[in-house]
Design goal:
5-stranded antiparallel beta sheet, 5-stranded mixed beta sheet, 53% helix
Length: 520
Amino acid sequence: MNTNRFSTLINLIKPLNLGILFLILTLAAVINALLEYNQSKADLHRMKEEHARLLTGQVITGSTVALNADRAMVNRLKEHLDVTRNAILNPALNSKANSADTLFSISVPDSLEPGEIYLQKLETNPVTGKSWFFQGWATGNTKGVVAGVRADHLIRFRQENGLGFYLAELMKHDEVRYALLQDSTDILVSATDFEGSLLSETEIHTIFHHPDSLFITALSDPDTLIEVKKAVFLDGTALGIFRIGVSVASWDTFSTRMTRRLTVALLLWSGLAFSFLLIIYLMGKKEELVRRLEQHQVLEDKAKNQAELAAGVAHELRNPLNAIGTLVQQIDKDFTSTQNEEEFHHLLRIVRQETLRMNEKITSFLQFARPAAPVKRMIQIEKWARELEPEFNAIGISKSCKVIISIAEKHELLADQIQLTEILRNLVKNAVDSVSEKGLVSVELKSTSSVFRILVEDNGSGIPDDIKSRVFDLYFTTKPDGTGIGLAMVRQMVAVNGGSIRIEDRKPSGTRFILEFPVE
């Protein structure tokens, strides 16, 4: 049972199976890397949008505070001017009353009602550098007056904390390309020169009707710029729409970096997977080699024991047989029977023939016990095989089956040709005996740079697992008329020529004998 499991494991770790497993694992790694890349890119996109949202929220919050503060300061300036309003509107007031820097008269349209404000402005004198807030009222006689109050603190506040300041601070972010506030007609405030177009009336209407929403759109190329838009209100009054352009060009850098990292990770994974599978394969090969060596050693030990037994039996039997043969021959020569003389001599000759046949068997045993040393010479494999082809065809015809010899290429082998012929003859006969009529026996001869291999295959019923380990044993046979010497002699002759032999099941049926000889 354990042997079968081990054989199954060895079959599973063949190069083709390992290659398929490696491709599957690599494909899984590639798919995982692509999914990870797309997920990371989507995460970065969400991070960019969230970053733009946060920037917009910060600007709107800070700007709203600044606008409220600005309005409060302007209102205080107006209140300061309102203190002198009655006096300014007094008809008896001379145009040169009070300081000339703070009060002067001016012509106004006669359509204005007395006391109506027709002028409000903030102005900085380019010569003195002083800033004033002016407010003018109609007096009702086509004349008007203008009062002014110093507004340096308002200018300074706007420079240091106003909306322009917040937009300028926003532009310090590397990824912010522009930031501006626009209304339905024009750009009110911009931190940089803006070369884009104003929003359409439809877009403005949509944004104003969703005051709590951020609108994010891609401009030009989705991987280049996104724009965030948000409606801005002050005390319930719509001031305009903030527009912030955020660059996402860093996605290119991210993509390159991620691609490089994923490629390196994939290569490392592939290398590790290949190394792991290679180690498994080599371990399997090592286990298989160890198993073969152990089997070979077992066979060697068996053959040695069997050879010693055969030699002992042969010696014990040969001498009595020789004596019997000699006596029978002498009796046949010197004596005769008074009755049935012809039958008498016929029986003696039978005894003589049987002793000779027994002596031949003993000689075979002795040859097995003490095999002749091989006489090796370089064999031209193709020529040798073609010379054997007629004999093998005849063997096949005698059993109504077909024997095919195939030679992969021309090659040579240093071996004992007589013994190699006997080896192949025994295997072909054995294969022919195992197939039914119209069966097939194939002999394949091929070599690599280090091994010459002979494969003898048949499509017969195969060899049961429980006797595979015994087929090379001396005296073991499943044939009614077999002696159990043939395959034992084959294994022995293969060994003395420096080779090895093993048995495999042939799919879907049959047996395969594999002989391997080192190429010298």
